[in-house]
Amino acid sequence: MLPSENTSPRKTFKKLRNSFHLIKSQVGFHHCKWFFLIILIQISFILFLAGTSTPPSPPQQQQQQQNFQISKPQQNKHQKQSKQREKYCEYGRVYVYDLPTKFNKDLLNNCHDLDPWSSRCNAVSNGGLGPKATGLDSIIPKNLVSAWYWTDMYSAEVIYHERMLNYKCRTLNPTNATAFYIPFYSGLAIGKILWFTTAKERDRPSEEMLQWVKDQPYWKQNNGSDHFLMLGRLTWAFRRKTDDDSDWGTSFLRMPLMKNVLRLSIEKFPWDDLEVSVPYPTAFHPQFEYEIKQWQDLVRSRNRSSHFCFVGAVRKKIKNDFREVLMNYCKNETSSCKVVDCSVAHCYDGAPAILEAFLDSDFCLQPKGDGYTRRSQFDCMLAGSIPVYFWEDSFKTQYEWHLPLQYEDYSVYMDHKEVRNDTSIVRKVLDKFSKEDVRKMREILINVMPKYLYARSNQGLGSSNDAFDIAIEEVLKRFKQQREQQQISEKTIKKGSPVY
């Protein structure tokens, strides 16, 4: 029989047994000889099996087989991960410019100099989230305290940069990018030069940044039309119309090199198609989805003692200040309105007194802030209190990516002129809403809560998109559609057909 042929284990055992009986019948044994005979039989059995088994594969063939067995599951794993990335990044990927540090990191390192009156180091700490919140133990569950920070209303540009560096759809290869992110801290850069400086001085940081970006090869491809940035301050700080030193702000958004660049802003200019508003950062920064659910349950079950509230300070330098109108009205409506007077109380962003007032009230009065919007309106919604607006520009053209378009389903509008003439309108209008109406409106705010929050994890919230995820996905979607339309136009031109 050839060595390469296979032998049945049963036949092999039968032959071995017959050999054993033959030896046993012919030899007389005492204990010592029988012991050595058994050893001899065992060795013969091993050698016999070795001679009838299939010869091993050459080392190279064995290695190839082993490699194949190992690499196959790895290949499946990589394919699965690639498919997941394609699913998450169906609108493309973002390339983050490595700007000279004077446009971002150096500003953080010199945080004591970012404001003429006080240090901004707390505001920009913890990746823009600010210092850990304190004094909330009696208001929120103990296990949620770690999710609260004293976040500054103008810190979004730092938050966005931190998140972008770890974004799931970031690419390090600019040739694969759909969008190009410019991590310029525009708000911090002008913070200390908005006052007591010339117009030329205020414009210098923005001009220097644009000079650097315009020389990049990927800017030149489309003249910046696939580039975007985040504005940490309200849009009005970047729209100076003249070069007069007495005119406030910078002319950043009016500079020729910015004419094609998309910008995210905590308050947009209503008539600018290249500007999109994103939520102000609040004090609540969950890391896990269960933290949001726990907070939603608390907001939903909260017993509220006040019909409505007003949080703010009177601006004495402003003639006929509407905030003063609301403040005086609320102080006379003590049975219905809860007041937090920020000229008396310490009203830093997210302070315990503010949070408690919103949690205790069905409605919150939201006049204009420095612009048409306020950070307060997001603090209000976060606590399940229904915002009451007095200017249409406070809500109509703002936050369309993050809040439902049917504003009347979760907010109330009263014209400020009518309220100024008769403040009793406030209570008359709010009294028309039944408890069930209020519950339904609050439920909408609770359900969309993840969309206007910023997670404290660099990886986001997992399966839920937070405010950052939504904003960047919408930017990518916009640029992808823009590129597809451009490609269609180019093909049409090549074919010689007219383009309408």
UniProtKB/TrEMBL annotation:
Q: Does the keyword Nucleotide-binding apply?
A: no
The places in or outside the cell where this protein is found are: Golgi apparatus membrane
Going by the entry's taxonomy, the superkingdom of the source organism is recorded as Eukaryota
Q: Which GO terms describe its molecular function?
A: galactosyltransferase activity
Q: Name one GO biological process term.
A: xyloglucan biosynthetic process
Which keywords fit this entry according to its UniProt record?
Answer: Glycosyltransferase, Golgi apparatus, Signal-anchor, Transferase, Transmembrane
Q: How does it sit in the membrane?
A: Single-pass type II membrane protein
Pfam families reported for this sequence: Exostosin_GT47 (PF03016)
Provide GO CC annotations from the record: Golgi membrane
Recorded family membership? Belongs to the glycosyltransferase 47 family.
Please identify the protein, giving its name as recorded: Xyloglucan galactosyltransferase XLT2-like
